[in-house]
Amino acid sequence: MEDEVKAIRSTNLEIDRKIGELRVPFLCLIEGPNDSGKSVLAQQYTYGALCAGLPTLYITTETGTRSLVNSMEEITLNVKPYFLKGLLQVFELHVKNLDWDKELSARFLELILRTMQVKRRYGLYVIDSLTYLVTHADEEDILNFFTEARNIVDDQGKSMIVTVHPYAFEQDMLIRMRSVCDVHFILQLKEIGDKIVKILQVPKLKGAVKPASITLSFDVDPAFGIRVLPFSQARA
Length: 236
Prior knowledge:
Blueprint: E1 7-8, H1 13-19, E2 22-23, E3 27-31, H2 38-51, E4 56-60, H3 65-74, H4 80-84, E5 88-92, H5 102-118, E6 124-128, H6 131-134, H7 139-156, E7 159-164, H8 171-180, E8 183-192, E9 195-205, E10 214-221, E11 225-228
Parallel strand pairs: 3-7, 3-8, 4-5, 4-6, 6-7
Antiparallel strand pairs: 1-2, 8-9, 9-10, 10-11
Helix pairs in contact: 5-7, 7-8
């Protein structure tokens, strides 16, 4: 079934109407600060991939397996049937409270690469988030990780979503990371009137039929997930 999948959607009608589908295979970078919606956006596309028939490996440094499945179910992304059938596997990396250094960071980055190379039955790999693993990593190890990720996408036809906090990288490194990606989402928090809203920018979208530099405003409804707001934010 994986070979038949040509593209995935978020399954959120407003997001899909404004952004369109992501054509597989792709390497997607989602960057943004805390509470900007990175994980929810990654989860939307995870659900879309599963609905399209693409088995998914979700590597999380943010939460546990049960918490992830339950939190997705709470925002109407019912992944439990896929999880029970083995079409969704959650790989927990317990990275908090570790004594991080360059060597440990390199080992964890290598562990993720090996995991993806071994578990080839999956068509989509989600890494949420890479921040803890790269904060103390050498530039060479980070570049090697994204080079190998690019090779997995190109040589094996797999797709990958990586979420990061931009503060973990030097600007030059961010530019180089963005350059190897097919899809680039930037999330920000903005004060509009008396409300803090989330802004999603899409400066890069491989094979896009939509205009470049898409920008939309949204919020995360605890009961319904991402809700696109009826007003737009001008580009900075």
